[in-house]
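Hey team,

Filing this mostly as a record. A colleague (T.K.) asked me to run one chain through the structure pipeline before their review meeting, and I want the input and output archived in the tracker in case anyone asks later how it was produced. No errors, nothing strange. Just documentation.

Input sequence:
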Amino acid sequence: MTLDHGLCSYKAATANVGGLQARSKRLRPHPRRAQTMTDTYTLYGSYASYYTAKSRSHLRKKGIPFVERLPSENRFREHVRPTSGSHRIPQLLTPNGEVIQDSIAMLDHLEARFPELPAIPATPKQRIFVHLMELLGSEGLVGLAWRHRWLFEENLGFVKADFGRSFRPQGSDEELQKYGSLIADRMMSYGLPPTSEAIRAELDEQYLAVLKLLEAHCRHYPYLLGGHPSAADYAIMGAMHAHLGRDPAGLAFMQQHAPRVFRWVEHMLTPDVQSPEFHDSPVAYPAEDDIPETALAFIRHLLSEYSEPFVLSSLAFQQAMAIENPVAGHVLDAQTDQPKLRPTVVSFNGSTHEHRADAHAVWIAQRSQRYFHSLDSATQEQVIDTLASDNARALLTVPTKWVSERRDNRLTVGERLQR
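Output structure:
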């Protein structure tokens, strides 16, 4: 199932509802910038929103002046949404009035303007790790997080009230339930899978596998890449905070089985860069382009469990573009920012698959693929050897002759690359 940014399929669900790389020095927590109304960003989102959690954490850790507002605010309806052409959250309103939708596009925009405490490391193995985590840690885990939210009955009262507050922040209990139920019922009508005790137990097993690997890592490191926060950390905040770290069933399970992960989530919500537990850890990416073994174990798990659809989408995109032969600048779908392309037949692991490319996932996957293809062959092999995953090799080596780019909040075809 394709899941939209923020509150799942936010457009349909809300219709008619209430009308530079640090290496050797220790960095102190970022100084507070003087905030004025002329230099403050506005983040439109919700605490129930998967993707807002990523952007909120990034803004806070970077010390970027911002305020957060709900999508029920008049300015969102009257200016932000019409400007972006999207109902999805989060959306970012810049001090000069520009509107950016999509958590990764927002991160790139902010990184270019606030280079201190960079979210993307500069060295090859670490950068590939981070770009893969942008895909696997966010888009890979969204299905688990979404099913865990909706298939556990104990979550529903809380989640509905949470949605209700997005539209009636000071509403009565009855109003919260009314508006929250409208949104929740529509989300659950989009193809919610059946639930049973056995299905819920399987979901908990999948969740536990993730938690065990993160718990082992959080014993020794404050962030996935040592002492420095990165886009890899922000990528998993959607799953680990907005859904699994707030919904009652997921939260209780995390607290019981992975208290260090729970504490990591708490710290990721603060603007402090150094946590009390790791106050003496240098705020730096590991030297010599190293990646902690516990972080590699985590990403290998994600590659094993969640990467195949992204390999198929990447292959299907190349196949579809070869058939259509569009010109550079062609908009894949003017009506939606996350289209699926028509089915094509692709081969992977000795089997053929009819697959519709998820254009948004392809755009994210190409962040790692295009960077990987820019490396010399010796460095490419070092990256592959470090990841030690056949699925990593399959994903990274997909050709990128046809490029997906994001322009004006729509996915387009870029200049064809000659390889």
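Quick notes for T.K.: The first helix runs from residue 10 to 14. The chain has 18 helices and eight strands.
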